[in-house]
Amino acid sequence: MRLIAVPVLLIALLAGCADAGGAPSADSAAPAGDAPASAATRTVPEADPVALIGNWRVTGTEEQEGAVLRLAGPSDLALFRPCGMLGGGWRADGAGMFVAEVTGYSVCPSPAEAERWTPAWLARASGYRLAGVDRELLDPAGEVVARLAPATAPGRVDPKRISPDLAEPPVVTDQDRQALAPAAPLPAGLTPATARTLAGRWVAVDGVRRPGEAHVELRADGAWSGSDGCNGSRGRWVAGEGGTLLATAGSSTLIGCENHPATSWLYQARRAATAGDQLTLFDVAGKELGRLRRG
To answer: Where does the record locate the signal sequence feature (predicted)?
Structure first.
């Protein structure tokens, strides 16, 4: 079954992009190694997720020379290389957490990325900080993964393959500010989830046809996979202090059925709490999204 990128950034690509093929599995999407999915405890001098929106030249990492990372709304990421474009999504918050994923490409992943798309340096990023006019992406230990310098549009964009509009510097909108607003704290008396307590498989307990059919599984390397009962989904996640949780939407099939919202809860969640074998997810306003149990 061909996977559809969610959010569907690559729909805006022109005809030549459709030859990229189907999305990889959750296993192949994970970066090498077993880095924890938590943002390290650290002081972030400045953290404003809205300030990440823009076009950024990528330096200080193994990325191709001249690459430009475009961060628009939190569901809209594009990495422009001299040979083409990778597309996906990202999330960030005011505490300095960051997570991103590539869900498709036009023309040119490297041979090493052909099976997992997301560049290794981007998969390692779990935090960020502002550094003057630049931005720095950080790994779980607080080390700089990549430095982002302000850029205009990428130098070369083939209009036969990629819509030139996708390369223009994005404009911050009120919708972006709302999506990146600080999350409400957990209700009093709840135990904030941590990366360690979140890792594992969680199954829906209400509104399912068969136990365990709808679930999410959060891996220690920062990848997650799951099902709404009919469709497989995947993405990346990161957790921090106070039960903070960010996850990308990744890719999903689109089979119509009595779909359960377990996987969409994870993407919408901004905080999480655990109690015994139960996990409760909350949105940015502090409203309960739903509950899962370990299984």
So the answer is: 1-20
